[in-house]
Amino acid sequence: MMIKNKTVPLVTAGLIAVIFLLANAGGAALVQKTDRTGSPLSPAPCQTCHSSGKFNTSVEVQLIQGGNPVTAYIPGELYLLQVMVHANENAQQFGFQAVALKGQGNEQAGTFQNPQAGVAVRTVNNRSYPEHQFPSLKDTFRLEWVAPVSGSGTVKFYTAGVATNANGSSSGDGSAFTDITIQEFGVSAVQHNRPAGFEILAHIPGITMDIAVPETAGQLVIYDLMGHVRKDLSYQGTSQLQMDLSSLHAGAYLLHWRGRSSSWTEKFIVP
Description:
The chain has helices at 7-24, 28-31; strands spanning 58-65, 68-69, 72-73, 78-86, 93-102, 107-108, 111-113, 119-124, 127-132, 140-146, 155-164, 174-184, 199-204, 208-212, 217-224, 229-236, 240-244, 251-258, 263-270. It is mostly beta strands. The strands form 5 sheets. It has a 5-stranded antiparallel beta sheet, with no helix packed on it. A 5-stranded mixed beta sheet has the order 3-12-11-5-6, with no helix packed on it. Strands 16-15-18-19 form a 4-stranded antiparallel beta sheet, with no helix packed on it. The chain is elongated and about 70 Å long.
């Protein structure tokens, strides 16, 4: 009687499993062609495999400009996307996947570029997915994001993060996912040319700004890059105004003028 050798099939199956796990360590968009961020396009987030909830894993996402997190974007401006996978000291390696979506159709929002070493931007179903290229010893990932064109509206960044024990399988790992909402700055967004009649006549940084406006009634508002109102001046019966800048700290700001029939937004710096 011939005895069948069961060892070979078992070894073969084990090798296939190891190959799959090592390949998948390169990112779900690369291997599975799948969104694992927890977005509306995701069949299931990273917890599908890394489901044990170890290491008290959480994910923090920030959109940064000028060294500060922002909650509103200016169309066409350059930002830094930073993803931090928080976990306790027992975690050995880290990974992530992110996507930026807009509109009811969850379309691609903006452009990812210049990823740091160990991060790749991959395409799945016409959306761009930054993700790790291989398990990372560092828990923070960064790359640039160029905001979409005017009128794109609210953008949501969906992000999943994984903290692993580096045992070569998904057992004993921790994962989490989150999302942040970034509003488009202003109703009319930023135009390419100033409207006729709008002019900055004089600007003494950190002191005053003299402005000519095309309409004799309207409003001037200064925002910081997080969308907070720092100055608000309504006026009527004049076409020249002076804004007091003395309370503004060094940094970048947005000057927004709004009249009855038009509006304008531009960036300025207080050194």
